[in-house]
Fold each of these.
Amino acid sequence: MYHKSTGYRVFSAFNHLFLITLSLLCILPLMHVLAVSFSGKSAATANIVNLWPVDFTLESYEKTINNPAFIRALFYSVYRTVLGTALGMAVIVFAGYALSKRNAAFKSRNVYMWFFVFTMLFSGGLVPGYILITELHLINTIWALILPSALSVYNMILLMNFFRTIPAELEEAALIDGAGLFRILFSIHLPVSMPALATITLFTLVGHWNSWFDGLIYMMDTKKYPLATFLQTVVVQQDFSKMSLNPQDMENLSQRTVKAAQIFIGALPILLVYPFLQKYFVKGIVLGAVKE
Amino acid sequence: MKSGLQAQAATPSAINRKSKWIRGLTKTWPLHLLILPAAVIAIVFHYLPIMGLVMAFQDYKPWLGFFKSDWVGFKHFESLFLFDESVQVIWNTLIISVLKIVFGLFVPICIALLLNEIRKTGIKRSVQTLVYLPHFLSWVILGGILIDLLSVKGGLVNRMLTDWFGIAPIFFLGDGDWFRFVIVVSDIWKEFGFAMIIYLAAIAGVNPALYEAAEVDGATRFQQTMNVTLPVMLPIIVVVATLQLGNVLNAGFDQIFNLYNPLVYDKGDIIDTFVYRSAMLKGDFSFATAVGLFKSIISFVLIIVSYRLAYRFGNYRIF
């Protein structure tokens, strides 16, 4: 047995050490930010904070929560995430269900498939998309953040492939019992596909929460920035020119501990859904890669 | 009467075909209806902008629109190759993306193989939980963190380098070569865990009897890895590698946009960031569209080629 050889034991010890270090490296940056956010202003400026708060205080979180611009952005993010995910899921559930029918039963299926797949392969790009949103008068509306991304063809195909693994006998039995198309979708396909639906819903939620570029170009009114865009402008680019802020908030925003607190709050929802996400996405990924 | 019968007899197949099509539609219209919302979104938000690409051949002025703006042929495409700046941008894109693709392929495979050697499921699962996490954080969050960590003035990384190794602070995000290094390393750091999932699934599918047989033949663990595990993983490695071909012009807009600054434009500016600045900051809509179209067309060809290759060598299908 190779497990017992000295050489393998030495390797195994180093391997454990290496992998544990590597995985700690993946969360240390986040822990450092957390430590800075809970540290005192002077300790952070003096660069003595490592992975544990120095002069523990909640001051930076107080300042963040008392900044109306931050709170407004936070709520706008929640709004776009909920609405966007609901709409996006409805679109792909219906289309994915119809496209899961066999070619024999649904002759136009192939045409639709190529029509949708083409959108993944080629796109008009930044400028025509921007002009379209302008021409449709969607600038400064929530729809500019929701409609262009409402159809995820990739997720639709993922869901369709999952629906296709449902045995045809189930559907035939329901048909004989007189169930219609919608009845079959809601009482067979959806309940059976809960793991796939959960994965895709969580992916869509995370995608909306993290999305920042659309807010940057489609929102002229900075009061309608989602949180990710707000963080991008204020924390990453340090651009206060577009924001109408009072001098006190402006000073707070450039403080290192306050920046850290804002970054952490921005990451928090992802950290909260991560345990649920992890439960499903491994299956989802493998499902997407392996097809019948 | 007679002529009417004749006329009817002349086109029975056409009538049949038409009525068949209508009969098909009466049966399948609910399916078409279910697809309608998705189809409308695809037409409005994907196909209409593709038509808008005509502006790459115009001098588009927003107040003139598509119909009144002047046509200029391939002028913008010519200037793309005439300006030193845009040629440099294409090179930067290629260098950064190729480095990302090569290391992004190699690193997850190695880590997956190393992780496979850990027997205790508790440790294995904890490692997986931690390394998958960065994938889900956006480049805005990670950009904010990295700018703080890599700061010359007392960032954690520079402090560690100085305290432990006595190295003078490095201007990671202000020096072009260091910037590329940071871009590639941080991208691998964010994505290697997630990219590993697919390889771990392949490793889990190896038939244990193969290892037993190798053991009987006196193979060391390293030999088993090279001769049993890797060959089983090979098809999926080939598929992943070929599908990456379509990403050769994608150097990672989100990441670069959140980390770069004018100091590193010469080595860190890529096609997508260049398009953004040309369009949104300079208002040079047509030129930006032409650059974007150039990228889209090349990417499209590469994706088609990569799908064909993946189908041929890995039996991979999109649907």
Note: Residues 82 and 242 of chain B are 32 Å apart (CA to CA).
Amino acid sequence: MLIFEHSRKGRRNYTQSPATPASKSAIPQNLLRKSKVLLPEVSEMDTVRHYTRLSQKNFSIDTEFYPLGSCTMKYNPRACNSLAMLPQFISRHPLAPEDTGQGFLACMYELQEILKSVTGMAGVSLTPMAGAQGELIGVMMIRAYHESRGDFARTEIIVPDAAHGTNPATAVMCGFKVVEIATDKDGNVDLDALKAAVGPQTAGLMLTNPSTLGVFEKNVAEMSRVVHAAGGLLYYDGANLNAVLGKVKPGDMGFDVIHINLHKTFSTPHGGGGPGSAPVGVAERLLPFMPIPIVAKEGDTYRWVTEKDKPQSIGRLSAHMGNAGVLLRAYIYVRLLGVQGMHRISEFATLNANYLMAELRKAGFEIAYPNRRASHEFIVTMKDIKDKTGVTAMNLAKRLLDKGYHAPTTYFPLLVPECLLIEPAETESKETLDAFVVSMKEILSEIESQPDMVKGAPHTMPVRKLDDVKAARELDLAWKPSA
Amino acid sequence: MPFIPHTEEDIAEMLASIGAKSIEDLFDEIPDELVSGELTGVPSGLSELEITRLMMERANQDGFYQNYIGAGAYEHHIPAAVWQITTRGEFYSSYTPYQAEASQGTLQLLYEYQSMMASLTGMDVSNASMYDGATALAEAALMAVRSHKTSRRILIPKTVHPVYRQVVRAIVSNQKIEVVELPFNTQTGQLDPASLAQFANDEFAALVIPQPNFFGVLEQVDVLTDWAHSKNALAIGVVNPTALALLTPPGEWGSKGADIAVGEGQPLGIPLSSGGPYFGFMACKNELVRQMPGRIIGRTTDLDGKEGFVLTLQAREQHIRRSKATSNICTNQGLMVTAATIYMSLTGPEGLRRIAAQSHANTLDLVEQLEKAGGVKRTFSGPTFHETALTLPKPAADVLAKLKQKGILGGFDLHAHYPELGNALLVCATETKTAADLQNYASALKQALG
């Protein structure tokens, strides 16, 4: 039932708006609204009950294991939320003077410094509001760098075929042509293809490492040499930083610009699709082009770096300073973990992934890259199972929902057929992983004994399989009252 | 180990299963020359008690002020239920709802949000959010250029938020789209429809129309919308969602209505929080829906014919279309939209209208009282909503510094963005201010000017 269907004309929450209508108005009649606003007319209790019930129809990290590859669904510590929402922080206006926000700015400055040091970059700006915006800002800096040198011929961005869809979409949004390069049989970028692709037209390469295939790109140093020799720059998509934090720094791998998904590696909540936050880090030569604002420290005082300090900046990409509250949560998380905790993130994420990969292999699942170490994630391919039984990766994913597990990422990366990209994250215990393996085994035997039941999954969710085709053909995107 | 549950025994068993001697072995594919060794520059870990003390100290250092700054972010009362429900783990820690059957809560909520925003803006459809108001406007500009096909030029009045204009320029210039800024009438504070005559023979993809504009002034939206349509261009409204409870919504501007409505969603239950996270909203007419960026939720049925909700029109999006997507946007501001939906449900149509009307009335009262402080007068003659520009007899920066000493953040100094306006200060009083607050500000201003 929709909230609108609970609505009754004239019902209202008297405590949530002024008790009496305003006594004056100077808005000209011709600008006043004549049509009704179709907001629900419900009591506070109706609202609380309705949205509490809706929440109960969701899977979440707080309620289920979420082995969702490439999304790093780790536990979101509650202290990060409650301390970021201290009343002084949440009531501070973004345009309030700097001296009324020194406590907040200190947190931001320290976060910048910590992110610089763990990634090996020369500068960090906190403004990007999601991974894709971090990418856009990063690629804009690559463009600004080339143009500042009078080099306008660099019109191409190279992207491996295993990359996230945001990489090619970002390059195009930034006005570049995308050149896709292939992956070899072991999951590395095809070096020969890269060498053939680079040239004076190359603006840069966007790379995720470890890649979305769940393996470390062994040739990264050589790739860096190839791209740099051609005059291009290297972009690091930090989507999988969780796998190598404290082990390898993107700066040491030769990357010129990176983004870090705080909603992955630094445990800020996914919130049902955001808000994210994706600070960008840059090497020395890109410092002048960083987006503003950035926090600077002078003596004991913090202040905003603006266009006055950075005339070559690519500019502002948000109305204020980015997702400040998300940044506070990440700061609190880093301080709780400390330096040792930073190292443990990748260690235990990698331990969990390799353990789960080993156990699933023993259970009879086919691993896409069996000769490689898993990073923090790995791929199971259902191709043989589908050929034999007709049961697809999507069917298995939906059946997992019935068993109380969120599905792994399916059908991504695109180059492995019938794939499940599985990422357990470091915060899950061995018992959880073991129970997951038991459920996966059960599904394997269900595929043998009752394949149609598996194909019809899920069976225990609030709804059964939904009709996507109907949704797209008979668009119903907003509720309208019945006439 | 913080947030890592493994016992020594677990680790040993897991390594045995893998066939590795140590955790270190699991990183043996990383070339030695790349391994970084111990991290530096990260302090030692804190307990929850210790971090609580630190954050309380920092929060106390920042303190509380009586705030009269608006300029794109507005202080409103936020009902307690909004964030108590929003931060339930099932909303807070869930992922983007790709697995529809396990995400019906978020999906239904987003459908309800789209319905509320479509009605509030008077448009047919809304998406499930953008990052913020500024990026929503930039995406609207890109959308207009995609749908126009021949012109790559956008007209934006200088009465649009100055940072929004910067963000639009930064984003659309990548695609060689020209942004033409239009001057305003310095008497009224409005975009002057007469000034559009210079474009009589030019082609452009869209005209951006703010309502209210950055000065709080109400624009002549009907004339401007009709003019854009007469030029075969789209009309893009940039609107304040609270104001829409009182003002003609973009979908009803002029004879055909604006084509796209965008804006900053923060006033709908999102705390000021030093600038974010907020959310941008975007709504449009039916015929533009396939050009719209971002997530869109549709209502459909399951195998049993039961109602359910899914992400739809995904063929526009980056995870399907890659380089041919309408935008690179992936993660949006889902949790903020959760809060906004609960907020709009709690206020209802009458509550939101009263909040808007009281904010307007309080600003009228504030301006009336501040005008008595001596030498203070309204900068513009145009009617305003809940923000008004005042011209002071002294530089606004000096006056604001004195007010701050009394715990008052007196408004937004317009000098940096509009030096031609002299000592102009933009003030805002929402429904959160009482008559006593306004008097307190007026007497502090009198002293500051004295």
Note: The longest helix of chain B spans residues 334-370.
